[in-house]
Design brief:
This protein has 559 residues and is an all-alpha fold. 61% of the residues lie in helices and 3% in strands. The strands form three sheets. Strands 1-2 form a two-stranded parallel ribbon. Strands 3-6 form a two-stranded antiparallel sheet. The longest helix is centred in the first third of the chain and has 38 residues. It is globular and about 85 Å long. It starts with 6 loop residues before the first strand and ends in a 6-residue tail after the last strand. This is Peptide/nitrate transporter plant.
Length: 559
């Protein structure tokens, strides 16, 4: 007889026991299962990062696209890759389940990377090579562009499936059971490696299928959210001004006795107007679209309250959506470390990863103790403080980039190569390490702050969604970046002048473009201060913990 997979009741998962038990033997299976999940997610990230780092060069050199068109494709692809995990999280938590969602994403991701690799192998999949004169280059056909976008779309769908539930599914496993060098190797190898990474990740994930703990219950937050909206509208005429004794419907042993005073228009959803009509003999709600619990109302409020602060993450993500332009800037600078070694342009972005990872590791272990000694008292780093620090560093990132580009462009003009962007400017590309350092540190601190903020403010039933909201902000940032890129390009090219974002970097004004984004970041900082003040203190994880019982009872909380 075939052994059934372990199923868990999420109500039992709420028991007051440590997430990681001290018994190593009991945890060994969980660690083994989670290692496969981490490997799958890591291979997907490595594959996507490897592709995105070189994509702008591939589109310009092989598909003969201009900088604006190529950047638009990349930012839209990035936006899709960061939006689809949110959609996947909704589906994983409500209907599909986390294991099937990750499995689906793994298969589709492999298909997408293989098809993209085939565009480097099949000559008909891309335009023919240019001759000696770039004016002789043929542009891509509609079919070639559509096929390319289709492969990128499959990769985005795969990323959506894998990223949407990997973090939450990994946590489930610990619950008690019941360059030039690049050019020489060729695009075939460069795009073939990410396909192999995706394959390795999928094999790792499926190899532990029999060991995974899979949650039986499904979250119904989306339905619950709309029930609160509709019920509050139906009860809009029943308020404290019209009722002398208001009775709020709450669950047994709920942490919320009465709804909070913020967003009070939603409190009408949990007012018990007629107990006999809306509750049965056992106290269960009969019409969930006319009466909701206090818990449902507070969970819906939690989502609406974080939206203004979440938008600050969207605007900050505009700064990290400039990867394609940064690659072009790097290509025009001297990338030699020694006379015989030259850093590939796309590889310079590894400094972003180094500083980001170092910040995550050293922040609590080095910075916080150091700050505590400086101020002479314990330094408490809240989630909102981390988000604010990240936004501040994003301003410095764009400002430093603008200064470096201003200097680089001036040197190019003095060298007399304004009309020839292929000639290397006599300025070291290592100057770009400084802005990579700033955005790496800022992105790491801001990301950690956002994750902490969403997890503390959101109900547990939205764990997958909370883990993907950061991706959603990056997706929104990509769309905003695309909009700004096209608007600035159209406005600055009027009158026959070169666009600020010209494919010829020496004739454009990338420094002006960076300053515009820096100005937007300053506005974002002021907006963040306002939203943070209006939001008030964050809810602690303990305050948000609610005992979820299967039976809801019509208790009366009189005000």
């Amino acid at each position: 007889m075939e052994e059934k997979e372990p199923l868990l009741d999420e109500a039992k998962m709420e028991e007051k026991e440590p997430l990681l038990e001290s018994n190593k033997q009991k945890n060994s299976a969980g660690f083994k299962a989670m290692s496969c999940i981490i490997a799958n997610a890591s291979f997907e990230k490595a594959a996507t990062f490897g592709l995105s780092a070189n994509m702008i060069l591939y589109l310009e050199k092989e598909y003969h696209m201009d900088l604006v068109t190529g950047t638009n494709i990349i930012t839209l692809w990035t936006a899709a890759s960061n939006f689809l995990p949110v959609l996947g999280a909704f589906l994983a938590d409500s209907t599909v389940g986390r294991y099937p969602m990750i499995a689906f994403g793994s298969i589709v991701g492999i298909l997408g990377t293989i098809l993209l690799w085939l565009t480097t192998v099949i000559p008909q999949a891309r335009p023919p090579l240019c001759g000696d004169s770039t004016t002789q280059c043929k542009s891509s056909t509609s079919f070639q562009v559509i096929f390319l976008c289709f492969t990128l779309g499959l990769i985005s769908v795969g990323a959506g499936g894998i990223r949407s539930a990997s973090m939450a599914f990994g946590a489930d496993q610990f619950v008690k059971r019941y360059n030039k060098e690049e050019k020489h190797l060729g695009w075939q190898v460069g795009f073939g490696i990410p396909a192999v990474f995706m394959l390795f990740g999928a094999v790792s994930y499926f190899s532990a299928s029999s060991s995974y703990v899979r949650s039986k219950d499904r979250s119904t937050f989306i339905t619950s959210f709309f029930q609160v909206i509709i019920a509050s509208y139906k009860n809009r005429n029943f308020t404290s001004a019209t009722l002398h004794n208001i009775v709020y419907h709450r669950q047994k042993d709920s942490a919320f006795v009465v709804p909070s005073k913020k967003l009070r228009f939603l409190n009408n959803a949990c007012i018990v107007r007629d107990r006999e009509r809306y509750c049965n003999a056992n106290g269960d709600i009969q019409d969930s679209w006319s009466l909701c619990t206090v818990d449902q109302v507070e969970e819906s409020k939690a989502v609406l309250k974080v939206i203004p602060l979440w938008l600050t993450g969207v605007l900050m993500s505009v700064t990290v959506s400039q990867g394609g332009i940064l690659i072009v800037q790097t290509m025009s600078m001297d990338r030699h470390i020694t006379s015989n070694f030259e850093i590939p342009a796309a590889s310079l972005g590894v400094f972003f990863c180094i500083f980001a990872m170092s910040t995550v590791v050293l922040y609590d272990r080095v910075f916080v103790p150091f700050a505590s000694r400086i101020i002479g008292q314990p330094f408490y780093s809240t989630s909102k403080l981390k988000m604010g620090i990240g936004i501040l560093l994003s301003i410095l990132f764009m400002a430093v980039l603008a200064v470096i580009e201003y200097i680089r462009r001036g040197i190019a003009i003095r060298q007399g190569i304004a009309d020839n962007p292929e000639v290397i400017v006599n300025m070291s590309a290592l100057w770009l390490i400084l802005p990579y350092c700033l955005i790496g540190i800022g992105e790491a601190i801001n990301t950690v702050g956002q994750y902490e903020f969403f997890y503390s403010e959101f109900p547990k039933s939205m764990s997958s969604i909370a883990s993907t909201l950061r991706d959603l902000s990056v997706s929104g940032g990509g769309l905003v970046a695309t909009f700004m890129l096209n608007i600035i390009d159209q406005v600055t090219r009027r009158g026959g002048k070169p666009s600020w974002i010209s494919s010829n970097i020496n004739q454009g004004h990338y420094d002006y473009f960076y300053l515009v984004i820096a100005g937007m970041c300053v506005v974002n900082m002021l907006y963040y201060f306002l939203c943070s003040w209006a939001y008030g203190p964050c809810q602690s994880a303990a305050a948000m913990k609610v005992s979820r019982e299967e039976d809801g009872i019509c208790h009366g909380s009189y005000v």
